[in-house]
Write a structure and sequence with these properties.
Blueprint (H helix, E strand, L loop, with lengths): L5 H6 L2 H7 L26 H9 L6 H6 L12 H14 L3 E5 L2 H10 L7 E5 L4 H13 L3 E5 L15 E7 L11 H10 L3 E5 L4 H4 L9 E5 L13 E5 L1 H14 L5 H33 L4 E5 L9 H7 L6 E6 L4 H10 L15 E5 L16 E5 L5 H17 L4
Parallel strand pairs: 2-3, 2-4, 4-5, 5-6
Antiparallel strand pairs: 1-7, 6-7, 8-9, 9-11, 10-11
């Protein structure tokens, strides 16, 4: 089998790219998959090589190490398994390079710490993933970094909030609970006029449905725990960066010594092969369930950007090439007890704080408890669904039974 040439790779469609990226027959000794390399210590063959390693500084990139004949130096700095997943994700995301960390939140933290220092200012979307907000309100605050939350619909108006000390604008589109869409190209253009880094949490869409760096994002973070995994059995985060920001990201992650686990990286590589197939099926399934829910008398509104009546539909249609399996709904006014009866009646939908796996999930949420820049008043209780790979008719039957319990519920 001839090695894949750059010219051929550039012509491949996404599904084919995911099958062939991140494979290195030299590293895998001819086997199809690069195995999980476990190790801490890397042995040097002689004193000259050891001194050569010391002479090139603390944070050499992989290409420099290869040129010096030292591909690996220590377990926290990468292994053959991490190398091939980093290379594959860099290609998929359109970045200059990628670093792997133990979780999506670790990727968010690593990205922010690569950009800000004491006394700096961050602009953060009000619809951001709640643990990101918690990090900003605690650790960043303790470091002397101020965070201002902004309306996710602000678009180019973000320029009015930029200060002399602003170092980063953080976007998340759509928001992972309220499903607010953001005009990321407009925000990026305004930020770049002031030489400010744009960081995006791109977990909902993945680079397959939203190419972050082609849309103006400098640093993109993803929870590989979600769609890269697809099986709810690993923890993994990816930080992809543009040429300008790759070195600061590498230095930060290397200094923190937070490598992803070898088994998680190996399972991430396995998930990469089927990610496009699973995403397309999740899109089809979720749209089917969303359209069915929209016709239910118990549902006030469905929050899904691919539906024409969603406030951010035009942005989604312009900037995205697909939609994933995560969306939310607003129920018509109902008591907490009735909503609990609905959730407890479900048999196929588990309740858990994640998404992107093969199983369907649901959680109740209330953004009014933490939003500060915008008012959350949807008109009824809100639920977030992650649609899995079960038969869609079985999912509808499960929901139908739960709605019956909701209607029948009576307060004691």
């Amino acid at each position: 089998m001839t090695r894949l040439t750059p010219e051929t790779k550039g012509k491949l469609r996404p599904r084919s790219r995911l099958v062939h990226l991140g494979r290195d027959s030299d590293l895998s000794q001819g086997f199809v998959n690069v195995p999980p390399f476990r190790g801490s210590t890397v042995l040097y063959p002689d004193v000259a090589t050891l001194k050569k390693r010391a002479s090139i500084g603390q944070y050499p990139d992989l290409e420099t190490l290869k040129e010096l004949g030292m591909r690996y130096t220590y377990g926290t700095r990468g292994t053959p398994t991490t190398e091939v997943l980093c290379a594959a994700w860099t290609d998929v995301s359109g970045a200059a390079g990628t670093m792997l960390v133990p979780s999506g939140l670790a990727a968010i933290i690593g990205a922010l710490l690569s950009v800000v220092s004491a006394g700096d200012h961050v602009l953060m979307t009000d619809s951001v993933y709640l643990p990101t907000r918690s990090f900003c309100n605690t650790i960043l605050k303790r470091m002397g970094v101020e965070t201002t939350y902004y309306d996710p619909a602000i678009g180019a108006g973000i320029g009015a909030l930029i200060r002399d000390k602003t170092r980063a604008v953080f976007v998340e589109s759509p928001g992972s609970q309220s499903i607010d869409m953001q005009d990321i190209p407009a925000i990026a253009a305004a930020a770049h006029q002031r030489d400010i880094c744009v960081i995006a949490d791109n977990t909902w869409a993945t680079p397959l449905f939203f190419p972050p760096h082609a849309r103006g994002v400098d640093i993109a973070v993803e929870a590989g725990t979600k769609y890269l995994s697809g099986h709810s059995d690993l923890l993994l985060g990816m930080i992809s960066a543009s040429e300008r920001w790759l070195d600061p990201v590498r230095r930060t992650v290397d200094s923190m010594a937070i490598p992803a686990g070898p088994e998680d990286v190996f399972l991430g590589l396995r998930g990469l092969r089927t990610m496009e197939l699973r995403l397309r099926e999740a899109e089809r399934q979720a749209l089917g369930v969303a359209l069915w829910l929209r016709e239910r008398p118990e549902v006030l509104r469905v929050l899904h950007p691919a539906l024409p009546d969603h406030p951010g539909h035009d942005i989604w249609k312009r900037d995205f090439s697909g939609s994933s399996g995560l969306f939310s709904i607003v129920l018509r006014p109902a008591s907490d007890g009735a909503v609990a009866a609905f959730l407890d009646a479900l048999e196929l939908f588990g309740m858990g704080y994640s998404w992107g796996g093969y199983e369907s999930l649901v959680i109740p949420f209330d953004c009014s408890l933490y939003r500060t820049a915008t008012k959350w008043a949807p008109g009824g209780p809100t639920l977030r669904f992650s649609i899995g790979l079960e038969d869609i008719e079985d999912l509808k039957d499960d929901l139908d039974g739960a709605f019956a319990r909701l209607r029948e519920y009576r307060e004691d």
